[in-house]
Amino acid sequence: MVGAPLLSVSRRAFNSSGRLNVKNSLSSNYSTATKTFGNQSILPRLPIPELDATAARYKRSLLPLLSAAEHAQVSQKIDRFVKKDGLGQTLQARMHALDEQEAKLGLSWLDRLWLNRGYLEYRIPTVLNVNWWSQFRDHPDGLISQVPEGTITDFQISRSAGLVSGLLDYSNKINDEAIPPEASRSGPFCMHQIRHMFGTSRIAANPRDTIVTSCPATAKHITVIYKDQIFAVPVLGPNGETVPLKTLENQLRQVVSRVDQLPKEQLQPPVGLMTSEHRDTWGEVRKELETIPTNASTFSAIDSSLFTLCLDNYSSPDDKDLSHRNLAHGKGAHNRWFDKALQIIVESNGRAGINGEHSPCDAVVPQRTVESVLMQEPIVDNLATSNISQLPAPTHLQWSISSKTDQQLKAAQENVDKLIADYDSVLLHYDAYGSDFMKKAKVSPDGWLQMAYQLAYYRQYGKPCPTYESASTRKFLTGRTETVRSCSVESVAFTKAWDNKDIQMKDKLALFGNAIASQSEYMKASSNGHGVDRHLLGLRCQMTPEEAASEEAAIFQDPSYWGSQYWLLSTSNTSPGDLSWGGFGAVVPEGYGANYAIAKQGVKMSISAWNSCADTDATSFRKTVRGVLDEFGQVAEDYLVQK
C-alpha cells in the first residue's frame, strides 16, 4: 500500500507540502457545494508525457543509484529507445491509440493497466503485502481497562453500532451525491474512487483477480464476523433508511448471542483464513467452493455486503507497537475477510481501526470517510434516522467444505503464521514538533520528512537507495497515483555532506534546501502526470513479445529498470493523523515501509520491515529516524527559525 496523501475535506488546507485545505480551496473557482460527481465532466484527462521528457527525467533519477560507467551504458539504451522512428516512438503512438479507446469508456490510458499490473495480477498474499491498516483514535470516553479475554462488552457493541451508523450515512450520501466534491486552489479533484468503497470486494481468480463493486451501493446488509462465524446482517430499512443506534446494537447482540449459544458441531469452518493465502491457491479453492450452491450463496452475501465488521472478543495490548498488529493481521488472520474493501475492527475494550484492500481505491479515500465518522463520536441518532426498531434477523452464512478444503485451511494457517512471524512493524509518535515548526523554518513538511528518511537510511547503511513516495494525480479524471523518486542527486549530496565536520552548516543547509527543492519539483511533476514510472509501465505494456526481446527494448532489459524500482524505502504521506494513523508492509524483502502523518504539533509514523532479512530492523531504523528528526529540529531552531 502506498496511498495518496490523506486529506480531510471538512477541516484542512493545502499547506506547503501540497495537502488540501478546504478554507483555501473554497476561494477557488470551483464550488464544493455541487454534487459529489458534479465536477467530473470538467476534469482534464491524464496526460501521456512526452517521450523525451520522460527519458531525461528517468536518466536523472538513475544517477544516484548507478556508477558513472553503468549510467553511461543505460543512457545509450534510453537514447536508442526514444530516437526518431525508434521503438519508443512506436509504443508512444500505441499508447495514444489506447488512450482514445479507453476514453470511450470514461477511462484513462493508465486505469486498467495500473489496476491489473499494480494489484490484481499480484499473486502473493495481500494481507501485509497489499492491504493497509489504520488505527482510530480512542473513543472520547476512552477505552475499557482489564477486559477478560473472550468477552464482548456493551461499550464495544455501542461503539461498533456508532461506526456502522456513520458509515451507512456516508454511503447513503454517496448514493445521493451529497458528499461535497474536493477541490484545490488549482481546480477540482476526481471523485471516482469514492464509488468503490461500499459493496466492493476483491475476488481471487487465476491468473488475475477481479473486483466486484456497486455504485450506487444498493445492498442493505453488512457482514459481521465473530469467532470466525460470518453473518449477513441487515442494517438499513426497506428503502435504504438509516435506523436508530439501538436497532443496530440489537442486530450485533443477536450475532454474539447466537454464536455463543451454538453447539460446537454447528460452528462453521474459518474459511476467511483463505483470504490470507497465495492468490493462485485461494483462487482455485474459491472456484471449487463456488460450485456448491450453499457456498455460492455465502460468497454472494459477503461480496455484495456494504462492508465488514469484525467483532474481536479480546483486546490488544496498550503498547502501540503491539496494538496496531491486530489491525494489520488479527490473531493468526482469524475473524477477518481480507478481500473486503473495508473491514472495520473493534476490540472488546473499544479500540478500533480498519483493514483495507488496496486495489479498488487508494487508502486516502476510505480513511477520509472514516475520519468524517470519527469526528462525530460519540455518535447519536440524527434527524434523518428512521424510527425502524426492528430489522430482519441476521443470517448465519453456511459453508459446505470437503476434507480437501479442510486440509487447505490448515495449510493456510501454517502459511499465514509464518508471514505474521516475519512481519516487523513499530510506531513512532513524535511530539517534539510538527508542521507548524517546519513552516516557521520555511521548509516543506513533506520534504522535511523525506529528507529525514534519506539521511536515516544513509546513516544506517552508508549508501542511498531507491525510494518511492506516492503523489496524487486526482486532478485528472480517474487519476490515482504516480511515483516520486525521492532519492536524487541533490538528496545524495545532502546526506553525504550532513555528517561531514569539515563542511560549514550554511553549506549543509544549502544542500538540504536543494534536496527539498528537487523533491518538491518531482512531486509537482508527478502530480501533474509527468512522472516516469507509470509512463514507462504503459510503454512496456504495448510491446509484443518479439519487440520485448529486441535490442531496441534494452531499456527494459537493463538491470537498472527493475533495480531502480526495487523500493528499499517505500513511503506514503497520510497527514495529518489527528484522528487515525496507519501503515503497510515493506514492499521488498530487504526494504522498509514508512507511512507518516504530519500534524501541527507532531508526527505519527509506522515503520515496517521483514524479520527474515538480517539487514533490516524496524526498531533500529526508527531510532535512527528519531535521531535525525531531533537533529533537524535543533538545527532549524538554531539557524532557520526567526527569533
TrEMBL record:
Keywords: Acyltransferase, Transferase. Residues 46-625 form the Choline/carnitine acyltransferase domain. GO terms for molecular function: acyltransferase activity. Pfam families: Carn_acyltransf. SUPFAM superfamilies: CoA-dependent acyltransferases. Belongs to the carnitine/choline acetyltransferase family. This is Acyltransferase ChoActase/COT/CPT. It comes from Phycomyces blakesleeanus.
